Protein backbone atom coordinates (compact mmCIF):
# COMPACT_ATOMS: atom_id res chain seq x y z
CA UNK A 1 0.00 0.00 0.00
CA UNK A 2 2.95 2.32 0.57
CA UNK A 3 5.25 3.53 -2.16
CA UNK A 4 8.46 5.31 -1.08
CA UNK A 5 9.41 8.19 -3.31
CA UNK A 6 13.12 7.28 -3.29
CA UNK A 7 13.36 3.52 -2.86
CA UNK A 8 17.11 3.48 -3.37
CA UNK A 9 17.48 5.24 0.00
CA UNK A 10 15.66 2.57 1.98
CA UNK A 11 17.64 0.66 4.59
CA UNK A 12 17.11 -0.86 8.01
CA UNK A 13 17.14 2.59 9.62
CA UNK A 14 14.73 4.24 7.22
CA UNK A 15 11.48 5.78 8.41
CA UNK A 16 8.75 6.51 5.89
CA UNK A 17 7.24 9.97 6.27
CA UNK A 18 3.54 10.20 5.49
CA UNK A 19 2.95 13.95 5.48
CA UNK A 20 -0.79 14.38 5.22
CA UNK A 21 -2.98 17.43 5.53
CA UNK A 22 -6.21 17.43 7.48
CA UNK A 23 -7.62 13.91 7.89
CA UNK A 24 -10.73 12.80 9.83
CA UNK A 25 -9.74 11.03 13.01
CA UNK A 26 -11.49 7.77 12.18
CA UNK A 27 -9.65 7.47 8.84
CA UNK A 28 -6.24 8.11 10.40
CA UNK A 29 -7.04 5.68 13.21
CA UNK A 30 -7.86 2.93 10.72
CA UNK A 31 -4.72 3.71 8.71
CA UNK A 32 -2.61 3.27 11.84
CA UNK A 33 -4.22 -0.08 12.52
CA UNK A 34 -3.43 -1.29 9.01
CA UNK A 35 0.19 -0.14 9.27
CA UNK A 36 0.60 -1.80 12.67
CA UNK A 37 -0.91 -5.06 11.43
CA UNK A 38 1.44 -5.09 8.44
CA UNK A 39 4.43 -4.65 10.72
CA UNK A 40 3.30 -7.28 13.18
CA UNK A 41 3.08 -9.71 10.26
CA UNK A 42 6.35 -8.51 8.73
CA UNK A 43 8.66 -6.87 11.33
CA UNK A 44 11.19 -6.04 8.61
CA UNK A 45 8.99 -3.32 7.13
CA UNK A 46 10.32 0.22 7.68
CA UNK A 47 9.16 2.46 10.50
CA UNK A 48 6.59 5.15 9.66
CA UNK A 49 5.87 8.66 10.91
CA UNK A 50 2.45 10.10 10.04
CA UNK A 51 2.10 13.87 10.39
CA UNK A 52 -1.35 15.46 10.04
CA UNK A 53 -4.06 17.64 11.51
CA UNK A 54 -7.57 16.58 12.51
CA UNK A 55 -10.95 18.31 12.28
CA UNK A 56 -12.32 18.96 15.80
CA UNK A 57 -12.54 15.68 17.73
CA UNK A 58 -12.20 14.41 21.28
CA UNK A 59 -10.53 11.12 22.18
CA UNK A 60 -10.53 9.11 25.37
CA UNK A 61 -7.77 6.75 26.38
CA UNK A 62 -8.67 3.15 27.11
CA UNK A 63 -9.17 3.75 30.82
CA UNK A 64 -10.07 7.46 30.66
CA UNK A 65 -12.69 8.74 33.11
CA UNK A 66 -15.93 10.24 31.79
CA UNK A 67 -15.92 12.70 34.71
CA UNK A 68 -13.31 14.71 32.78
CA UNK A 69 -15.89 15.54 30.09
CA UNK A 70 -17.79 18.80 30.59
CA UNK A 71 -20.18 18.74 27.62
CA UNK A 72 -23.52 20.38 28.30
CA UNK A 73 -25.47 17.58 26.61
CA UNK A 74 -27.04 19.82 23.97
CA UNK A 75 -24.18 19.49 21.53
CA UNK A 76 -22.56 16.08 21.28
CA UNK A 77 -19.15 16.47 19.59
CA UNK A 78 -17.26 13.73 17.77
CA UNK A 79 -15.84 11.48 20.46
CA UNK A 80 -13.80 8.26 20.24
CA UNK A 81 -12.53 5.90 22.91
CA UNK A 82 -9.28 4.51 21.59
CA UNK A 83 -6.64 2.02 22.69
CA UNK A 84 -3.97 4.52 23.74
CA UNK A 85 -3.09 5.32 27.32
CA UNK A 86 -4.00 8.60 28.99
CA UNK A 87 -7.14 10.59 29.63
CA UNK A 88 -9.31 12.75 27.37
CA UNK A 89 -7.75 15.11 24.86
CA UNK A 90 -8.83 17.35 21.99
CA UNK A 91 -7.60 17.59 18.40
CA UNK A 92 -8.35 20.36 15.94
CA UNK A 93 -6.76 22.26 13.03
CA UNK A 94 -3.64 24.14 14.09
CA UNK A 95 -2.46 21.22 16.18
CA UNK A 96 0.27 19.11 14.58
CA UNK A 97 -0.28 15.43 15.34
CA UNK A 98 2.37 12.76 14.92
CA UNK A 99 1.69 9.04 14.80
CA UNK A 100 4.95 7.05 14.82
CA UNK A 101 4.55 3.41 13.80
CA UNK A 102 7.88 2.11 15.07
CA UNK A 103 9.28 -1.31 15.78
CA UNK A 104 10.89 -0.65 19.16
CA UNK A 105 13.00 -3.78 18.81
CA UNK A 106 15.05 -1.72 16.35
CA UNK A 107 15.45 1.06 18.88
CA UNK A 108 14.93 0.11 22.53
CA UNK A 109 12.08 -2.13 23.73
CA UNK A 110 11.24 0.06 26.71
CA UNK A 111 8.00 2.05 27.01
CA UNK A 112 9.43 4.63 29.42
CA UNK A 113 12.37 5.22 27.11
CA UNK A 114 9.98 5.68 24.19
CA UNK A 115 7.83 8.22 26.03
CA UNK A 116 10.90 10.21 27.04
CA UNK A 117 12.16 10.12 23.43
CA UNK A 118 8.87 11.57 22.16
CA UNK A 119 9.14 14.30 24.78
CA UNK A 120 12.72 14.92 23.68
CA UNK A 121 11.56 15.44 20.08
CA UNK A 122 9.09 18.10 21.20
CA UNK A 123 11.58 19.76 23.55
CA UNK A 124 14.08 20.04 20.70
CA UNK A 125 11.43 21.52 18.42
CA UNK A 126 10.67 24.16 21.04
CA UNK A 127 14.37 24.90 21.44
CA UNK A 128 14.76 25.45 17.68
CA UNK A 129 11.88 27.92 17.91
CA UNK A 130 13.54 29.76 20.80
CA UNK A 131 11.18 28.47 23.48
CA UNK A 132 12.21 26.84 26.74
CA UNK A 133 10.20 23.68 27.08
CA UNK A 134 10.05 21.57 30.23
CA UNK A 135 8.94 18.22 31.54
CA UNK A 136 6.86 17.97 34.70
CA UNK A 137 7.97 15.17 37.05
CA UNK A 138 5.46 12.35 37.20
CA UNK A 139 3.58 13.52 34.09
CA UNK A 140 3.90 12.88 30.37
CA UNK A 141 4.07 15.78 27.93
CA UNK A 142 5.83 19.10 27.42
CA UNK A 143 5.13 22.50 28.99
CA UNK A 144 6.14 26.11 28.30
CA UNK A 145 5.78 28.57 31.19
CA UNK A 146 3.40 26.20 32.97
CA UNK A 147 1.16 25.67 29.95
CA UNK A 148 0.95 22.23 28.39
CA UNK A 149 1.71 22.58 24.67
CA UNK A 150 2.56 18.96 23.86
CA UNK A 151 0.55 15.86 24.78
CA UNK A 152 1.55 12.23 24.36
CA UNK A 153 -0.50 9.05 24.40
CA UNK A 154 0.67 5.73 22.98
CA UNK A 155 -0.23 2.11 22.40
CA UNK A 156 2.40 -0.58 21.93
CA UNK A 157 1.61 -4.10 20.74
CA UNK A 158 4.42 -6.64 20.22
CA UNK A 159 6.73 -3.63 20.41
CA UNK A 160 5.02 -1.93 17.44
CA UNK A 161 3.84 1.56 18.39
CA UNK A 162 0.77 3.57 17.41
CA UNK A 163 -0.90 6.84 18.42
CA UNK A 164 1.73 9.36 19.53
CA UNK A 165 2.01 13.10 20.15
CA UNK A 166 0.09 16.32 19.56
CA UNK A 167 1.78 19.73 19.52
CA UNK A 168 -0.44 22.79 19.86
CA UNK A 169 0.94 25.20 17.29
CA UNK A 170 -1.92 27.61 16.57
CA UNK A 171 -5.20 25.84 17.43
CA UNK A 172 -8.38 27.40 18.74
CA UNK A 173 -8.04 26.49 22.40
CA UNK A 174 -11.75 26.91 23.16
CA UNK A 175 -12.35 23.21 22.54
CA UNK A 176 -10.21 22.36 25.54
CA UNK A 177 -12.67 24.16 27.80
CA UNK A 178 -15.14 21.30 27.32
CA UNK A 179 -12.84 18.81 29.05
CA UNK A 180 -10.25 18.45 31.78
CA UNK A 181 -7.35 17.99 29.36
CA UNK A 182 -5.36 14.84 30.11
CA UNK A 183 -7.16 14.74 33.46
CA UNK A 184 -4.99 17.57 34.82
CA UNK A 185 -7.23 20.31 36.29
CA UNK A 186 -4.53 22.65 37.61
CA UNK A 187 -2.28 23.07 34.57
CA UNK A 188 -3.68 25.05 31.63
CA UNK A 189 -3.29 24.06 27.99
CA UNK A 190 -1.31 26.46 25.84
CA UNK A 191 -0.11 26.90 22.27
CA UNK A 192 3.05 28.06 20.56
CA UNK A 193 1.09 30.95 19.08
CA UNK A 194 0.78 32.44 22.56
CA UNK A 195 4.56 32.81 22.60
CA UNK A 196 5.25 33.24 18.88
CA UNK A 197 2.40 35.28 17.33
CA UNK A 198 1.62 34.32 13.75
CA UNK A 199 3.35 30.94 13.84
CA UNK A 200 1.82 28.35 11.49
CA UNK A 201 1.87 24.57 11.34
CA UNK A 202 3.89 24.51 8.11
CA UNK A 203 6.80 26.20 9.85
CA UNK A 204 6.82 23.62 12.63
CA UNK A 205 6.29 20.50 10.50
CA UNK A 206 9.77 20.51 8.97
CA UNK A 207 11.37 21.04 12.37
CA UNK A 208 9.46 18.09 13.83
CA UNK A 209 10.64 15.85 10.97
CA UNK A 210 14.27 16.88 11.45
CA UNK A 211 14.25 16.47 15.21
CA UNK A 212 12.39 13.16 15.07
CA UNK A 213 15.03 11.83 12.68
CA UNK A 214 17.80 13.01 14.99
CA UNK A 215 16.32 11.64 18.21
CA UNK A 216 15.41 8.23 16.78
CA UNK A 217 18.46 8.08 14.48
CA UNK A 218 16.50 7.30 11.35
CA UNK A 219 16.60 8.51 7.77
CA UNK A 220 13.29 10.08 6.80
CA UNK A 221 12.04 9.00 3.38
CA UNK A 222 9.01 10.84 2.06
CA UNK A 223 6.46 8.28 0.92
CA UNK A 224 3.25 8.24 -1.04
CA UNK A 225 0.23 6.31 0.14
CA UNK A 226 -2.51 4.58 -1.81
CA UNK A 227 -6.05 5.74 -1.16
CA UNK A 228 -6.89 2.32 0.26
CA UNK A 229 -4.97 3.19 3.41
CA UNK A 230 -7.31 6.08 4.16
CA UNK A 231 -10.59 4.32 3.46
From TrEMBL:
It comes from the Bacteria. GO terms for cellular component: cytoplasm. Residues 43-220 form the BPL/LPL catalytic domain. The keyword Acyltransferase applies. The keyword Transferase applies. Pathway: Protein modification; protein lipoylation via endogenous pathway; protein N(6)-(lipoyl)lysine from octanoyl-[acyl-carrier-protein]: step 1/2. One of its GO terms (molecular function) is lipoyl(octanoyl) transferase activity. One of its GO terms (biological process) is protein lipoylation. Its EC number is 2.3.1.181. In the reaction, the free carboxyl group of octanoic acid is attached via an amide linkage to the epsilon-amino group of a specific lysine residue of lipoyl domains of lipoate-dependent enzymes. Catalyzes the transfer of endogenously produced octanoic acid from octanoyl-acyl-carrier-protein onto the lipoyl domains of lipoate-dependent enzymes. Lipoyl-ACP can also act as a substrate although octanoyl-ACP is likely to be the physiological substrate. This is Octanoyltransferase. It comes from Tychonema bourrellyi FEM_GT703.
Amino acid sequence: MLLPSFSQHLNSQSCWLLDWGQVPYSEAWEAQRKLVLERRENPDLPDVLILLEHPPVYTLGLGAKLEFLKFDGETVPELHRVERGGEVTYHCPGQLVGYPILNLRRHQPDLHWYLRQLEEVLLRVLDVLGLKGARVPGMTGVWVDGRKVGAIGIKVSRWITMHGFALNVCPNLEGFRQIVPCGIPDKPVGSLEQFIPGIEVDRVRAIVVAEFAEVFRVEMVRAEVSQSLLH
